[in-house]
């Protein structure tokens, strides 16, 4: 696939830009000369040292802890450190490298800045539901400004792993199930972090290097279990999973992280086809490859050799930097002596790390990211927080909005009126530390308002906001503990379930509306948080049932890092607003949407199944030879289940608004497309409701007959528009031959003549259709 989206203008963000020291323009020859001269002075040991990214201590994931890092830095045995927070500490460590090591080579300081630094944006899955590339780029831009102000020059983001399995907790960190959208987001994020392309060598001190991860296919682990085996055909890889990585490379991403999983039986970390032939050979990647954490040492457990063997395997495959394993510093010297690794291979890897440092401008000024005056000025500013609040409110997906069952013709429950008493009830209702969501390493966990606190503050003098916890997160205390690690405790309540429920019902009795804050804790998704049951946890379900029995309007305000199974909720709860984990400003953003100051416009980027047995369930599936006839949910000897239909609960692209949008039929500029031309597909979208609102207009295409089987539909374009109540706008998509290409059986990237269905609509299932013929 070729990138369709080009960068949104950073000029729009001029106001956001803080301090900027622009490096003098340098030619690639200047860089080569500089690095040649430096490498001439380096010992073999020092070259290996550049490839070493040891644990700093104080880290959030993993098992290993290495001590005496300082001594290693002084000996030139460290290339960078990661997840160290605070510009003062980073300055101190950088000084060790620059002033105490023989050659004074500066260190890279990396961090998992995944969805913001201290100003936290929605978890990436939520962010993707905005379908707003400018907003996503802006979130990365702000993250770069804040992280760089605190000494960080490198982020381990974007995570672009396509996943179709919500059992996998890390779906929260990615952009959902679609490669086209995922590719666009990957590019927006790379541009946001890196600003001008690294190759331009104009890196400002508020732009940082990005790292696309996890290369490759990490989201396709069997049974949704983290770190599990992956096995897929090349055809599926290239048609359905690889594009977002390629798009990031095309956008100039400076580094790539290898994934934990195997590919075709060889762990990605030691897979030469993946890291060299494809990534560098075919895609032209020029940056460096880092392992994911102990990826090298883990190859021992994969069963491909001892530490020396797997370290050599990794380097020879194309890995340049060893995160945590210390397999390179520990064994490469020996492997070189024994002829298992060539000096030239080491030199290439070392050069790539030095080039990254050069392009960041660290040789010009190793303290470029160590301006101790910046944090105060650039981190968690009002401007950044305002942007985060707006973007968070765009990420929420309104899953249902109906009147109370007893008042069929009344208005839907949302938006709420700014009057009376609103009770916030549920274990997610008053927890500060769970607001930012998983993978927020630099978050100030206790400084962000909980939902209850935020609503109270916003509605002071207008709405009386009350609160009760109502239940613990999960009945099983041990499960709750596993699901609330890293300072995200929900402070388990020792009262009995009944006592908690009684209190909640008392609070509910005094309220006009109940906002039920239920779902997952932030650490129920993310790394190593796979689940096999995806319903609301037991005690929360009991609470919700009891709240509904009061007969009062209940808004399920759903916190989650993944699609959940919500059949019962869809049937019984009048309004469901999925708020994911919205970040530092989530409470205010939720208030903005609940009380109608913002009309929700988020659209799902991952299918919500009806039950776990349907998984993997995704919108761009193949038809099979025995599809169900339209309108049927079961037929004997057809591809279906006895106990549930094939349909999702909420399809890809789905999301409601407080208003309604009507689509006209599609007008094609011509029904046939020649070799070089293009066709425009135009629809008119009308806001037929009473509220102004935004709509994500989606283009899907189906190739009706192919030399290999083709998906029933694939996203090929989208456009987010804003319409005032009553307003109409025309939206047009340009369809070229390029948009119709796919990898055929022989892995040629082709567009085959024939008929195509062109579909446009507000989600992947409700579309208008027109026919196009490719000559
Ligand atoms: C392991 C995770 O898989 C990866 O995403 C992260 O960047 C590294 N740890 C570093 O924290």
UniProtKB/TrEMBL annotation:
Q: What is the lineage of its organism?
A: Bacteria, Pseudomonadati, Bacteroidota, Bacteroidia, Bacteroidales
**Transmembrane segments in this chain: where?**
none
Q: What is this protein called?
A: Periplasmic beta-glucosidase
The Swiss-Prot or TrEMBL record describes its family as follows: Belongs to the glycosyl hydrolase 3 family.
Please name the InterPro entries in this protein's record.
Cellulose_Degrad_GH3, Fn3-like, GH, Glyco_hydro_3_AS, Glyco_hydro_3_C, Glyco_hydro_3_C_sf, Glyco_hydro_3_N, Glyco_hydro_3_N_sf
Which molecular-function annotation in GO is an example for this chain? beta-glucosidase activity
Q: What is its EC number?
A: 3.2.1.21
Which BP terms does GO give this entry? glucan catabolic process
Q: Where in the cell is it found?
A: Periplasm
Keyword terms of this UniProt record: Glycosidase, Hydrolase, Periplasm, Signal
Cellular component GO terms held in the UniProt record: periplasmic space
PROSITE patterns cross-referenced by the UniProt entry: GLYCOSYL_HYDROL_F3
Give the chief site where it resides.
periplasm
Catalytic activity, per the record? Hydrolysis of terminal, non-reducing beta-D-glucosyl residues with release of beta-D-glucose
| Annotated Fibronectin type III-like domain residues | 695-764
């Amino acid at each position: 696939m070729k990138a369709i989206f080009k960068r949104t203008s950073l000029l729009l963000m001029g106001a956001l830009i803080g301090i900027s020291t622009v490096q003098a323009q340098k030619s690639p020859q200047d860089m080569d000369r500089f690095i040649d001269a430096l490498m001439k002075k380096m010992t073999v040991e020092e070259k290996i040292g550049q490839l070493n990214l040891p644990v700093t201590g104080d880290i959030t994931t993993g098992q290993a802890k290495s001590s005496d890092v300082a001594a290693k830095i002084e000996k030139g045995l460290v290339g960078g450190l990661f997840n160290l927070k605070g510009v003062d500490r980073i300055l101190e460590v950088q000084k060790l490298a620059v002033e105490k090591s023989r050659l004074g080579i500066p260190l890279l300081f990396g961090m998992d800045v995944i969805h913001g630094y201290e100003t936290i944006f929605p978890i990436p899955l939520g962010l993707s539901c905005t379908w707003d590339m400018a907003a996503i780029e802006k979130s990365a831009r702000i993250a770069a400004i804040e992280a760089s102000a605190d000494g960080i020059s490198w982020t381990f983001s974007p995570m672009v792993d396509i996943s179709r399995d919500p059992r996998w907790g890390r779906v929260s960190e990615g952009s959902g199930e679609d490669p086209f959208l995922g590719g666009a987001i990957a590019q927006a994020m790379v541009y946001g972090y890196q600003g001008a392309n690294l190759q331009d060598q104009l890196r400002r001190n508020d732009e940082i290097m990005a790292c696309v991860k996890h290369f490759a296919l990490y989201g396709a682990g069997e049974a949704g279990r983290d770190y599990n085996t992956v096995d897929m055909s090349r055809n599926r890889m290239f048609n359905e999973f690889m594009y977002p990585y390629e798009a990031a490379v095309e956008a100039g991403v400076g580094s790539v992280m290898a994934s934990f999983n195997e590919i075709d039986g060889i762990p990605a970390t030691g897979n030469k086809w993946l890291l060299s032939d494809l990534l560098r050979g075919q895609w032209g990647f020029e940056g460096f490859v880092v392992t994911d954490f102990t990826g090298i040492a883990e190859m021992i457990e994969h069963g491909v050799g001892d530490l020396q063997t797997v370290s050599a395997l990794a380097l020879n495959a194309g890995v340049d930097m060893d995160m945590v394993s210390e397999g390179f510093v520990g064994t490469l010297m020996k492997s070189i002596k024994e002829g298992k690794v060539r000096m030239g291979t080491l030199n290439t890897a070392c050069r790539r790390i030095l080039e990254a440092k050069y392009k960041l401008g660290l040789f010009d000024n190793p303290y470029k990211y160590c301006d101790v005056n910046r944090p105060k000025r650039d981190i968690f500013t009002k401007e950044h927080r305002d942007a985060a609040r707006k973007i968070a409110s765009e990420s929420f997906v309104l899953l249902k909005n109906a009147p109370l069952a007893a008042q069929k013709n009344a208005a839907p429950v949302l938006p709420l009126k700014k009057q009376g008493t609103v009770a916030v009830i549920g274990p997610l209702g008053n927890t500060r530390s769970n607001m930012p969501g998983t993978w927020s390493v630099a978050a100030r966990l206790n400084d962000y308002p909980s939902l209850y606190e935020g609503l109270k503050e916003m509605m002071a003098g207008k709405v009386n906001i009350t609160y009760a916890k109502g239940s613990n997160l999960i009945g099983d205390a041990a499960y709750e503990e596993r699901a609330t690690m890293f300072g995200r405790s929900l402070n388990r309540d020792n009262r009995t379930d009944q006592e908690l429920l009684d209190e909640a019902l008392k609070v509910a009795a005094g309220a006009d509306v109940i906002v039920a804050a239920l779902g997952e804790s932030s650490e129920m998704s993310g790394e190593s948080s796979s689940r096999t049951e995806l319903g609301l946890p037991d005690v929360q379900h009991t609470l919700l049932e009891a709240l509904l029995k009061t007969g009062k309007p209940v808004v399920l305000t759903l916190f989650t890092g993944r699609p959940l199974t919500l059949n019962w909720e869809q049937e019984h709860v009048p309004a469901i607003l999925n708020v994911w984990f919205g970040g530092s400003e989530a409470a205010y953003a939720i208030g903005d949407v609940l009380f109608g100051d913002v009309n929700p416009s988020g659209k799902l980027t991952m299918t919500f199944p009806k039950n776990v047995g349907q998984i993997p369930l995704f919108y761009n599936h193949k038809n099979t030879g025995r599809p169900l006839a339209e309108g049927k949910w079961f037929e004997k000897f057809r591809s279906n289940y006895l106990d549930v239909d094939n349909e999702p609960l909420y399809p890809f692209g789905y999301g409601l608004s407080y208003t309604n949008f009507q689509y006209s039929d599609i007008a094609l500029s011509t029904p046939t497309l020649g070799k070089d031309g293009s066709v425009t597909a135009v629809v008119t979208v009308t806001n037929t409701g009473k509220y102004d609102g935004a709509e994500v207009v989606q283009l899907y295409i189906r190739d009706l007959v192919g030399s290999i089987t083709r998906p029933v539909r694939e996203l090929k374009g989208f456009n987010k528009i804003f319409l005032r109540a009553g307003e109409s706008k025309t939206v047009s998509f340009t369809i070229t031959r390029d948009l119709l290409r796919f990898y055929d059986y022989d892995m040629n990237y082709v567009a085959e003549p024939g008929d195509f269905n062109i579909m446009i609509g507000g989600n992947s299932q409700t579309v208008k259709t027109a026919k196009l013929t490719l000559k």
